[in-house]
Amino acid sequence: MKYTLLNFISSQFTTLPPVDCPDLTGRVVIVTGSNVGLGYEAAKTFAKYNPSRLILAVRNTQAGEKAAREIVDANDGKGTVPEVWELDLGRLQSVKDFGDRVNRELERLDIFVSVRRE
User: Fold this and answer.
1) pLDDT digits (tens, 9 = 90+) for 65-102
2) For labelling alongside 30, which of 16, 37, 64, 109 has CA 20 to 30 A away?
3) Superkingdom of this entry's organism (predicted)?
């Protein structure tokens, strides 16, 4: 079959199948860059699957708090309420402080998603 412009345009309106994610009860998830873009969408999706803790690791905590409220609203108050932790990957001390906090406060870490913006 020859791929044409019409095929391309019609493929842009194809409905994707739903994401089938297992229940994350008891799991701990950290998503960096989670106040915008792909990180935000990943965190919003993880929240639906009930991890025991969902941590939004963000450079700007005010933007992170806003994203956390939006995630709760987007999931109609169901699912996990995200926590916002400061993490600036451009500052070594921030990374060290974040790592220390992870070691102090978390018994386990099951999923870590790092999203980098250019």
Assistant:
1) 999 999 999 888 788 899 999 999 899 999 999 999 99
2) 16
3) Eukaryota
Q: Who contacts 68 (Cβ-Cβ below 8 Å, separation ≥6)?
A: 56, 81, 82, 83, 84
Buried b (16+ CB within 10 A) or exposed e, 51-60: bebbbbbbbe
Angle of helix 61-74 versus helix 37-48 axis, rounded to 10: 40
Domains of the chain are 30-113 (3.40.50.720)
For 91, the token pair is 């500052």
Q: What are phi and psi of 14, to 5 degrees?
A: -75, 135
Return phi, psi of residue 10, to 5°.
-65, -30
CA separation for the pair 40, 20 (Å, rounded):
18
